[in-house]
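Practice problem 4.
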């Protein structure tokens, strides 16, 4: 019965605790009367919120739906209009003024802005008055894992003292993630080390880098590069990651005393191991000196010579050193003047001596096998895992590091053998077959455990011993014939055997007839005791018509243990023979086989002959087709359909090899024997002087006839002349004309001295000329 006023307070709870689109409402109880005692009435507010979280980086094609505003006064008649104001209203967020639906128009990024505060109200569309008070709400952007962790620096540089104990802190690296740390594991970063083991480690939660090995020596290795990875999603699969590089330098501490130089045991003969220097107060030639070894506890191990430019004594090595056998050598060195003065020999000594101690420095050497090579034996029927033999190698250094063994797989590509890494036992991985491979040559590698870079190899030859696992068979395919008129106990074939095995005492084969046919056999087998056997007839005659072929089963066994045997078949064909036993009549297959050719060989020969015949026929057909090709031009009269196209392009002006330009400029330089391609060949070889038939008016004119014949001959012998079917036109004045020459070039008189009245006497043909030159015109001059 009491009236309460509800003060709406929309509060967004933690995103990881409240499902998307859910809101909580806190309700506070207020007094029902005001300060004057007037009862208060609660105004009805009817907002319906569907969604208040918005997913970032939305990739859909439509606008992303945010939520819906609705007033209890909205009856759906369009009289109410919804208005949205605040952050991004009208640009990022739009509202349907009729339905109140809110949409986001753009893809939002939570890292740019995490939430938006908006205000909404409902107004009357006609009066534009607010139906209810303005309400404020928040749209919070829901985070996704779209940012990888980033380190604050890249790269890092730091240093740590050498010989530091295990777990010494080197430095701390930090990576940040722009994703929401309050929602899920998108911003939860876990650190790991990608490069730098086993020297350093990193704490997965704090990023603190520590030393993982104690007593790291700067003199051995000074600089280290460590790669640290930071991965979000708590390091789970699918998380994003970033890396950084940390350069760590070991700083020096005083952990080494001063030492004299030592001679490494790996020094080669001839190398310098020490240099001595003696002083002489004299100068020049008087200061020259010689060094020599007077005594040594290593005979013939060292030698000494004098450097003439510096007068120093250079001690060189003559034999290899071995630290494990002798660690130091003591030498007595004497130095003397090279050019002593006899006058002062009795006053002062010319020599001096010094003791030199050479310390041999130990060098880490590879393991040494106890043999130069190994030869092992194994039976071919041994089971997989059988130990064939063992190899042994030791570290020659004083540290006596353990040795690890392995097989060089380049020498055992089929992985037939393996070696135990600890004790060097070589064992089988696959079964062996002596007939396939009687020897196996492999290499075993010995590696120093503390220094894997030091390795040694040794060859191991494994011989596969034979066991009697193969049965003997015929040495070849045997097939023979028997005559119809043969006699009993007549040998028709000698057979021998072969065996893939190789017994120590050699082969011994036994031949016999198969037991199941021995009672009714037509042939017998006689063992010759020399690994051969003879096949004998058992009857006096055989009939080819009754039976043309016999199959004789021969049992061959060896003399080894366990005994192996096999049954082999000999084919015997019955043929007709003469009195001397020569075959006369037999079936075709028997004849071919007797001649030494099998059916398969005969078929191969026939096929080869057919192929050769086919090749010959094809070659003949091709030659005939080439000869039957039609000429380019069939008829001289009709060449319209006989156009021959040559797709040849000239070389241009720079192509001086295609033709001789000098010949074109000087046609007379062409050789007389060179044939022309623009005239018929018969006009050149040999040249024939053609007779020209002149018109009747010129037949008696020898001058004209000689002129035409000369021009004809010139054209026939001119290589640059036009084609033979062309027309050449010439003009010839001739000589001996009654009218003489009409030219005025030879006249010595002037035009005014000429008299042309005689032209009228030459007849009607010169009448026109007489009219032109015979009379004078009215102006007093002649027409010319």
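Answer key:
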């Amino acid at each position: 019965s009491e009236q309460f006023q509800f003060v709406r307070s929309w509060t967004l709870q933690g995103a990881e605790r409240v499902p998307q689109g859910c809101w909580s409402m806190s309700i506070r109880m207020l007094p029902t009367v005001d300060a004057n005692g007037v009862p208060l009435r609660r105004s009805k507010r009817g907002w319906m919120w569907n969604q208040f979280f918005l997913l970032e980086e939305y990739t859909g094609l439509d606008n992303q739906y945010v939520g819906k505003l609705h007033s209890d006064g909205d009856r759906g008649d369009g009289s109410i209009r919804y208005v949205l104001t605040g952050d991004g209203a009208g640009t990022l967020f739009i509202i349907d003024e009729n339905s109140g639906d809110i949409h986001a128009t753009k893809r939002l990024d939570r890292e740019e802005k995490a939430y938006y505060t908006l205000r909404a109200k409902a107004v009357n569309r006609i009066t534009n008055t607010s139906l209810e008070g303005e309400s404020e709400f928040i749209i919070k952007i829901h985070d996704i894992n779209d940012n990888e962790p980033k380190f604050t620096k890249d790269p890092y540089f730091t240093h740590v003292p050498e010989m530091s104990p295990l777990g010494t802190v080197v430095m701390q690296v930090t990576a940040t993630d722009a994703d929401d740390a309050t929602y899920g594991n998108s911003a939860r970063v876990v650190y790991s080390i990608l490069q730098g083991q086993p020297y350093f480690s990193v704490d997965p939660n704090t990023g603190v880098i520590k030393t993982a090995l104690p007593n790291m020596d700067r003199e051995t290795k000074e600089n280290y590069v460590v790669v640290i990875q930071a991965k979000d999603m708590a390091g789970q699969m699918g998380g994003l990651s970033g890396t950084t590089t940390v350069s760590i330098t070991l700083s020096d501490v005083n952990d080494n005393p001063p030492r004299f130089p030592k001679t490494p045991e790996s020094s080669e003969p001839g190398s310098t191991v020490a240099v001595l220097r003696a002083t002489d107060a004299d100068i020049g030639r008087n200061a020259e000196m010689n060094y020599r070894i007077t005594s040594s506890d290593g005979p013939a191990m060292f030698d000494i010579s004098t450097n003439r430019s510096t007068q120093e004594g250079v001690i060189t090595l003559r034999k290899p050193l071995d630290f494990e056998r002798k660690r130091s050598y003591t030498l007595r060195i004497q130095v003397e003047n090279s050019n002593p003065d006899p006058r002062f020999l009795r006053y002062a000594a010319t020599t001096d001596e010094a003791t030199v101690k050479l310390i041999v420095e130990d060098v880490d050497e590879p393991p040494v096998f106890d043999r130069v090579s190994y030869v092992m034996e194994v039976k071919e029927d041994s089971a997989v895992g059988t130990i064939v033999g063992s190899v042994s190698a030791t570290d020659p250094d004083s540290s006596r590091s353990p040795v690890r063994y392995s097989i060089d797989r380049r020498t055992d590509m089929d992985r037939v053998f393996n070696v135990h890494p600890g004790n060097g036992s070589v064992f089988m991985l696959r079964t062996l077959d002596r007939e396939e491979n009687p020897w196996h040559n492999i290499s075993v590698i010995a590696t120093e455990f503390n220094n894997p870079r030091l390795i040694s190899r040794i060859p191991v030859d494994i011989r596969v011993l034979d066991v009697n696992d193969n049965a003997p068979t015929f040495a070849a395919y045997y097939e023979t014939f028997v005559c119809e008129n043969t006699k009993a106990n007549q040998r028709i074939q000698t057979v021998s055997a072969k065996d893939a095995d190789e017994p120590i005492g050699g082969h011994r084969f036994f031949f016999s007839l198969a037991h199941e046919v021995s009672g009714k056999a037509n042939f017998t087998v006689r063992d010759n005791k020399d690994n051969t056997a003879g096949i004998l007839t058992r009857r006096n005659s055989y009939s080819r018509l009754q039976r043309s072929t016999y199959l004789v089963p021969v049992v061959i066994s060896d003399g080894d243990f366990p005994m192996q045997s096999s049954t082999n078949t000999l084919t015997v064909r019955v043929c007709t023979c003469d009195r001397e036993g020569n075959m006369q009549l037999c079936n075709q297959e028997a004849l071919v086989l007797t001649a030494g050719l099998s059916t398969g060989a005969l078929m191969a020969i026939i096929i080869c002959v057919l192929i050769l015949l086919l090749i010959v026929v094809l070659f003949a057909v091709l030659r005939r087709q080439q000869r039957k090709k039609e000429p380019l031009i069939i008829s001289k009269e009709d060449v319209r359909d006989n156009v021959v196209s040559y797709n040849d392009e000239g070389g241009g002006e720079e192509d001086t090899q295609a033709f001789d330009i000098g010949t074109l400029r000087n046609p007379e330089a062409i050789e007389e024997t060179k044939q022309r391609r623009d005239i018929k060949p018969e006009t050149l070889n040999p040249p024939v002087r053609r007779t020209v038939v002149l018109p009747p008016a010129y037949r008696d004119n020898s001058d004209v006839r000689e002129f035409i014949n000369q021009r004809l001959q010139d054209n026939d012998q001119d290589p640059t002349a036009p084609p033979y079917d062309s027309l050449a036109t010439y003009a010839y004045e001739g000589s001996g004309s009654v009218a003489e020459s009409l030219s005025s070039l030879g006249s010595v008189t002037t035009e005014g001295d000429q008299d042309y009245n005689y032209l009228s006497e030459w007849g009607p043909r010169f009448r026109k000329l007489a009219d032109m030159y015979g009379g004078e015109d009215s102006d007093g001059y002649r027409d010319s």
